[in-house]
Design goal:
The structure is a single chain. By secondary structure, the protein is an alpha/beta fold. It has a single domain, classed as Spore Coat Polysaccharide Biosynthesis Protein SpsA, Chain A. Helix content is 33%, strand content 21%. The protein contains four helices and four strands; from the N terminus they run βαβαβαβα. Strands 3-2-1-4 form a four-stranded parallel β-sheet, with helices on both faces. The protein starts with a strand and ends with a helix.
Length: 101
């Protein structure tokens, strides 16, 4: 069976992050987060969810940052969300069926 990873880029998202990660924790097989310099409790929240957290010095190029995050994913499929996004009403069976086609 193929696996699904959440891949995110964050910076100072403590007010949004927990809701996002709660919404996917039972859907994804791994959580990969690249942090671009948070000074709040963002990293603490990421670690509460056993995320693989990588630091990245912001270079004013979101593509570089996103590609760096994707390079750390170790699974077949990647779900990309921003910290202020979250999943609702998902049919996990349909997701698994789709990614295993």
């Amino acid at each position: 069976m193929k696996k699904l990873s959440l891949v995110m880029v964050t910076k100072n998202e403590e007010s949004n992050l927990k809701r996002c990660l709660d919404s996917v924790k039972n859907i994804v097989n791994e959580i990969v987060i690249v942090d671009t310099g948070s000074t709040d409790k963002t990293k603490d929240i990421e670690l509460e969810f056993s995320a693989k957290v990588y630091d990245y010095k912001w270079d004013n190029n979101f593509s570089n940052t996103r590609n760096y995050a994707l390079s750390h994913s170790t699974v077949d499929w990647n779900l990309i969300l921003d910290a202020d996004e979250f999943i609702t009403n998902i049919n996990l069976d349909e997701i698994h069926k789709f990614i295993n086609l």
